[in-house]
From TrEMBL:
Transmembrane intervals: none
Name by which UniProt lists this protein: AAA+ ATPase domain-containing protein
Annotated SUPFAM superfamilies: P-loop containing nucleoside triphosphate hydrolases (SSF52540)
Annotated signal peptide: none
Domain of life: Bacteria
Originating organism: Devosia lucknowensis
Pfam families to which the protein is assigned, alphabetical: DUF87 (PF01935)
AAA+ ATPase domain residues: 24-285
Disordered, as annotated region: 480-503
Amino acid sequence: MQVAIDMGQSRTDGAAHMDLEELLATRLLVQGNSGSGKSHLLRRLLEQSAPWVQQCVVDPEGDFVTLADKFGHLVVDATRTEAELTRIAARVRQHRVSVVLNLEGLDVEQQMRAAAAFLGGMFDADRDYWYPVLVVVDEAQLFAPAAAGEVSDEARKLSLGAMTNLMCRGRKRGLAGVIATQRLAKLAKNVAAEASNFLMGRTFLDIDMARAADLLGMDRRQAEQFRDLARGHFVALGPAISRRPLPITIGAVETSARSTSPKLTPLPDAPADAADLIFTQDPKELTRPVVRRPPPPPPPSTNELLAQVARARAEREPEPTTLFPEIDEAEREETIRTVMAELMSDPDAGFRNTAQLYQDFLVRCRIRRVPGEPPALPAFKRLLAVARVAPDEETAASDGWQQALTLSETLTDDVQGVFLVLAQAALTGASCPSDATLARLYGTHSASRARRLLTWFEERGLIVLRTDFRGQRIAAFPDLGAETAPGDPAGPDILAPERGAAE
């Protein structure tokens, strides 16, 4: 069914009509400076379309509550909790009642939170209630700002997300966004870009004229006409109005706003006792509280900002609850240990760099469907160092091994595996590993580099090396109170045959 909404008069074709069905599918953006007639235009649109479609008006100034007397709109006072507003919005869609969300009296952040809750409730309504709704948002730059302002990031993200859902994803849910703004430059681009119909009113700033001309497909010289538009005069473009820029004049309305522009009135005659009227206190004034807005707090100093950042990092945020089943951490860790064992069973794993091993590890985790996020690269390096040792359960549960793990955390990632192999040999009484074995763990074929690494451990006081009368090497750990059995430094790589056989 095609419904033509009478918006007023055009300069060329007489009556200016807007196709309501096309508007519901393509959305509308209204732009104009304060006093250009935006609210008058929205009121004309609402009054003309009220008999045909359900309406929801997000009203930051309480100007549209007068629609209730003439057209039966239900006024929803926003001084409620966000949960209440969300539930009310769901019932509004269910029962198809036209409403005005009155945000008057709230500060900007409270208005943003209330509007986000209400729009979110309408957006999340059940599929059975996806009837067409004309959602009109006045002063849209408040709810979808292009840049962060004085409000908190949380409130801005909530409001911007709700406006983005309305303009980008609302069409399939029956929500047709009609947004009005004083300045296009202050409105988020991803919200403004979703509108296909435009009504551009008077504006003076070059940046706003340039954006308006760009949206209407006009060149910069034609944009100068926006400065000359009178109150209530707009340039229209869009599939619901006109395929070419069309100047129109908005028609009259049946209702009026509670607040109107101040009119000039003559001053009263100055009374003879003006001083007494001003400086003499009225007894009734004592019963009325004096309301003063508190001064803004002074800006925090640099030290206070640094302290806030330090506290924010120290305090961990509570983990959000999810609708997904909780991950069994014990099962996840066991699966990761299995993956690491498979990875280290490759005889060439000792000679592959950490980046290659990490990529192989991620692939194996996806194959085994390890739940949750895989360990990051620093955590993987730690897992790699422990997996290269793979102690038995008795050794892994001993106090000496836990102390060895603590000592290894003070070392760099590339030498932790070598240190832990030596510590395991000392705790189990095994022979001291050969240079070839230590070189493989260090990721090299050079035995001399392995010997230099042992010297580096000894210089740091972690181990004490000595040689018995047969030339066998012994590594003692003062912090662990243990030492290895004598081992041949020139012996073969004892790890390569075992891992090759395991494979």
